[in-house]
Amino acid sequence: MDKEQLFTIDCGDILLREFCIDDVDAIQQLTSEPEVYRFLPDWRSTREQRLDWVTNYEVPDNKQFLAAVPEVGQHILKLGIILKETGEFIGFCNTGIKEELPEPNREVAYAMSTKFCNNGYTSQAVKGLVNYLFTNTEVTQMNAVVLQNNGASKRVIEKCGFQWIGEVIIEGQVYDHYMFYKFPEK
């Protein structure tokens, strides 16, 4: 499919664009960066695994999510972060269900290549995805879970307006749990 025909969200300096087969090498390279797999070890893969995942799961999952809008339910959306200036795939920003959290448990998760950190791109991506969800779907609150030693991710989430609500243990690890509401809590 032509990249111009893929679902895209304009976020300022970056675009969020649904994954496509052409992204396999960029995703595999990104998830092999030590700073990325340190916090997202489940994303590390061989090229063959990533090709299988993108082809048979991630691209079809995105199509199912987009076809379900506005009632996205349990569907997953995985978007590449694309630098407008160069068209380069520099990270990803996703939303799905975090089963370890109480409902409603839709979360935002993301990763940025270390080469592009500290430019505000991740915050633009998170804000863009949350705004899209709140504007175009039935989603009214978002979750984020961040390992306690991931200071950079905590700064992104807090900069995007998420509020810390406590700690949660997932698979034996302690995470900080944040939430963001479409309609502020009263």
CATH topology: Aminopeptidase
> What ranges have pLDDT less than 50 throughout 5 or more consecutive residues?
none
**Overall CATH architecture:** 3-Layer(aba) Sandwich
CATH class: Alpha Beta
Distance between the amino and carboxyl termini: 45 Å
Which structural class do you get from the secondary structure elements?
Answer: alpha+beta
- Total helices: the number is 5
Total beta strand runs: 8
**Averaged pLDDT, please?**
93
CATH homologous superfamily classification:
Gcn5-related N-acetyltransferase (GNAT)
Would you write up a description of this structure?
The chain has a single domain (3-181), classed as 3-Layer(aba) Sandwich (Aminopeptidase). Helix content is 32%, strand content 30%. It has helices at residues 24-30, 34-39, 47-68, 121-136, 151-159; strands at 8-10, 14-18, 77-83, 89-97, 106-112, 141-147, 163-170, 173-181. A 5-stranded antiparallel beta sheet has the order 1-2-3-4-5, with helices on both faces. Strand 1 and strand 2 (14-18) form a beta hairpin. The radius of gyration is 16 Å and the shape is globular. It starts with 7 loop residues before the first strand and ends in a 5-residue tail after the last strand. The model has no long low-confidence stretch (mean pLDDT 93).
